[in-house]
């Protein structure tokens, strides 16, 4: 079968022929109809991930068929018994185990769920990793309450967009930041109240003047802008962080944190139960993940280049 | 009556004659037998506090008599209805309202509780603000669970010591840091498992090698050492921060936070309910606050100089 394989750390993966997977006991084989990229795939390609194994088929997100059953794959493997944190056996599909950028993947039957019927395979493939991460970040960690105002930074990324769609569907007032005015404009079309471009000076002051303070902030950047984000947290507010694209957090005021009784919550991925709740929510609200572009599997390098450029709005999908 | 009054911002307060307080409706007058300093008093003297009013009697902590009833004063005033965070009317006794560094103070009767009978007035006066802050930090925010390992930074300060005593009384394994070996030695006498001096290079690595990771870390410093503290947090661990003596937090890894599902919780002071629980815990376990030194009210400047030097281990007490 054709598959997208990491052959050299530091270079885009290549399409090559790989043997079809044989299911182990308890596994099923999914005939993949669509897969989706995540930032994780780019970190792996760039060598910025622990335990990278050359020769692995990449890809965490996939939608496909088991006979004529349409399914989504939960890429969160071996979480363990503690809902607070993944255990030591935890891994994410697509490194070191062969992933979804292929015609077939073998996966434990407990990791597949029926795909919500309103979704295409491309839309379904865009959902699992980003949806799961966003669900845990927004609901399990963020614990939004009635009338809370929510800020989501870096809108355009898959997790940020899913968190935005979930929060809007749940009835919250949502604001966003981005480095691109065009992405803020597209987020407004989704229903957000407004946004500011973080490339402009004093963006945090403008946002505070326009929106006030935020009960819940969801961030994936960290860096020195995190210190500015924290100035926007309301009393008893929460800041959930699921990424660190800008590196170490700098300039974070302890006084803001303790005087406002604020909380910062780190989160990544989620449990089987959270995955099931997320899928049910998507089905109930008929949510459709935002797709940036769809690429043939043979053009995976183009899809990776698109993600690396950071210009996408929504998920980048591969079609085997 | 004699009282310690802030007359110039930037200078130590002075002892002067002030009129005895007249109780408003709902208030009682406490004949103060002992009072205690907090870092807050020093911040006020240094002008590092919002809403400073010259002419105010300082002091948040006091123990005394109402007729022959021995009482402690809860200095946490007007918290409001939300246990998560103090409301906009919140204030702390001793600025802008006249405080406890005096012979008498007028206070709402709902703010006084019976002093646990095993305590002297000096010991009782050492308890309220530090005990309340430590209680909320350790139990309400930190939510320690069975077998958790706890790290308390900057041992020697009043809140850190009370948190240490509470955690030991509740049966947890406690480790400490300090900039003084002598303070670590004294903490070992209280029952802590061990500690490291944060002035030595790679102190965090030594602590990790000796103790492992910590389920709960309690810090009042912030600064760049917070980034090192965070490297010591266990999976699903919590870092509670109630002060910022070293300024803005720097070098805090988002990856550590999100991959370990760690949480940072800001906290200050506490509710009436938390105060009552803290007092009951102190009475039940017959805990005795650690006192560094006792000073006559007339020598308040000596007490302030001692606190400013940062050499104390335990509370600095004033006797009217």
Distance between the termini of chain A: 10 Å
Shape of chain A: globular
> What is the share of helical residues of chain A?
25-40%
- CATH superfamily membership of the largest domain in chain A, which one? Medium-chain alcohol dehydrogenases, catalytic domain
Radius of gyration of chain A: 19 Å
Which oligomeric form is depicted? homodimer
Count every beta strand of chain A, where a strand is a DSSP E run of 2 or more residues: 17
Most extensive interface: pair and counts? A-B, 35 and 35 residues
Could you name the ranges of chain A where pLDDT drops below 50 across 5 or more consecutive residues?
A: none
Structural class of chain A, by secondary structure, is: alpha/beta
Please describe the biggest sheet of chain A, giving its number of strands, its sense, and whether it closes into a barrel.
7 strands, mixed
Level-2 CATH architecture of the largest domain in chain A: Alpha-Beta Complex
Share of β-strand residues of chain A: 25-35%
How many structurally independent domains of chain A? 2
Global mean pLDDT of chain A? 97
Q: How do the SSEs of chain A run, as a string of H and E?
A: EEEHEEEEEEHHEHEHEHEHEHEHEHE
Number of helices of chain A: 10
**CATH overall fold name of the largest domain in chain A:** Quinone Oxidoreductase, Chain A, domain 1
Name of the CATH first level of the largest domain in chain A: Alpha Beta
């Amino acid at each position: 079968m054709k598959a997208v394989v990491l052959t050299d750390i530091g270079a885009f993966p290549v399409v090559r022929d790989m043997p079809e997977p044989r299911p182990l006991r308890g596994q099923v084989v999914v005939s993949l109809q669509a897969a989706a990229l995540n930032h994780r795939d780019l970190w792996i390609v760039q060598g910025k991930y622990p335990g990278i194994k050359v020769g692995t088929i990449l890809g965490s997100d996939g939608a496909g068929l088991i006979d004529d059953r349409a399914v989504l794959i939960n890429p969160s493997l071996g979480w363990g018994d503690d809902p607070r944190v993944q255990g030591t056996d935890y891994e994410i599909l697509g490194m070191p185990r062969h992933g979804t950028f292929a015609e077939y993947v073998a996966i434990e039957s407990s990791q597949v769920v029926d795909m919500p019927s309103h979704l295409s395979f491309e839309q379904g493939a865009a959902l699992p990793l980003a949806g799961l991460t966003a669900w845990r970040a927004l609901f399990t960690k963020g614990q939004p309450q009635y009338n809370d105002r929510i800020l989501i930074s870096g809108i355009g990324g898959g997790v940020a967009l899913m968190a935005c769609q979930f929060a809007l569907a749940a009835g919250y007032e949502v604001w966003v930041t981005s480095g691109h005015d065009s992405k803020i404009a597209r987020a407004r079309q989704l229903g957000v109240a407004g946004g500011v471009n973080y490339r402009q000076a004093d963006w945090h002051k403008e946002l505070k003047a326009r929106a006030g303070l935020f009960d819940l902030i969801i961030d994936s950047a960290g860096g020195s802008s995190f210190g500015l984000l924290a100035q926007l947290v309301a009393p008893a507010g929460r800041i959930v962080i699921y990424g660190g694209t800008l590196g170490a957090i700098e300039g974070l005021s302890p006084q803001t944190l303790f005087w406002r009784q604020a909380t910062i919550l780190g989160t990544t991925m989620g449990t089987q139960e959270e995955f099931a709740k997320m899928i049910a929510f998507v089905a109930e609200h008929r949510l459709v993940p935002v797709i940036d572009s769809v690429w043939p599997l043979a053009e995976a390098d183009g899809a990776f280049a698109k993600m690396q450029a950071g210009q996408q709005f929504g998920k980048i999908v591969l079609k085997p």
